[in-house]
Amino acid sequence: MSILELLGFGDDGWGGVLLLAASMTIAVTLTALAIGALIGTLITAAKLSGVRIFRIAGDIYTTVFRGVPELLVIYLFYFGGSTFVTSVGHWFGATGFIGVPPFLIGSLAVGMISGAYQAEVYRAAVLAVSRGELEAARAVGMPASLMMRRILIPQVIRFALPGIGNVWQLSLKDSALISVTGLAELLRTSQVAAGSTHQYFLFFIVGGTLYMVMTMISNRVFNHAEARVGRTFRTNFARN
């Protein structure tokens, strides 16, 4: 078969399958980023808390999930999670091995890793907010909820966006490791296509190219978001 036929969208082509796998990669990364945002926010609150045990717990979390290899975390969540679910199932009378959904557990594992990096991004963004603005808001009696909505959160988003863009790229690459669970994301599908056709160079190049396309589009999206947020702040500053 020719290269065009192999990469086509016909019955024998892999084009549609690869695009579907790329969409699965994006879905995993988006889900992981959302999970990481929730976890990162909680860890940021813990690390900036006045309670010492919360700060220690936050430091332990970020140290562990940034220090342990990502693949080991995925193995632990997938195989350890399956073992745990199987044990619980046996308590309730189930038999045999019970596997966990690869998409769910893979997104959770990458999300936990992403949360450790996002926590540091959010913490740095919070510390970058002018203390004078917060003190002025308190001085005029602004409620804490309004201060969060009008002053803290908008500036945290502004300062955190570049870092979140980097975390997105990290999660996009980490999603390739979920292939060890059998999920048909881009790397796994590229491996299957290469093994089925013996065109290893072709399909790994195509897979890498699709990752590069997703990366370039992601960069454009984040650059646009940063520019728009920057214009909004400049406009609001000029009005004030």
UniProtKB/TrEMBL annotation:
<dbReference type="InterPro" id="IPR035906">
    <property type="entry name" value="MetI-like_sf"/>
</dbReference>
<feature type="domain" description="ABC transmembrane type-1">
    <location>
        <begin position="18"/>
        <end position="222"/>
    </location>
</feature>
<keyword id="KW-1133">Transmembrane helix</keyword>
<feature type="transmembrane region" description="Helical">
    <location>
        <begin position="20"/>
        <end position="48"/>
    </location>
</feature>
<dbReference type="InterPro" id="IPR010065">
    <property type="entry name" value="AA_ABC_transptr_permease_3TM"/>
</dbReference>
<feature type="transmembrane region" description="Helical">
    <location>
        <begin position="151"/>
        <end position="170"/>
    </location>
</feature>
<dbReference type="InterPro" id="IPR000515">
    <property type="entry name" value="MetI-like"/>
</dbReference>
<protein>
    <submittedName>
        <fullName>Octopine transport system permease protein OccQ</fullName>
    </submittedName>
</protein>
<dbReference type="Pfam" id="PF00528">
    <property type="entry name" value="BPD_transp_1"/>
</dbReference>
<feature type="transmembrane region" description="Helical">
    <location>
        <begin position="91"/>
        <end position="113"/>
    </location>
</feature>
<comment type="similarity">
    <text>Belongs to the binding-protein-dependent transport system permease family. HisMQ subfamily.</text>
</comment>
<dbReference type="GO" id="GO:0043190">
    <property type="term" value="C:ATP-binding cassette (ABC) transporter complex"/>
</dbReference>
<feature type="transmembrane region" description="Helical">
    <location>
        <begin position="60"/>
        <end position="79"/>
    </location>
</feature>
<keyword id="KW-0472">Membrane</keyword>
<dbReference type="GO" id="GO:0022857">
    <property type="term" value="F:transmembrane transporter activity"/>
</dbReference>
<dbReference type="InterPro" id="IPR051613">
    <property type="entry name" value="ABC_transp_permease_HisMQ"/>
</dbReference>
<feature type="transmembrane region" description="Helical">
    <location>
        <begin position="200"/>
        <end position="222"/>
    </location>
</feature>
<keyword id="KW-1003">Cell membrane</keyword>
<keyword id="KW-0997">Cell inner membrane</keyword>
<keyword id="KW-0812">Transmembrane</keyword>
<keyword id="KW-0813">Transport</keyword>
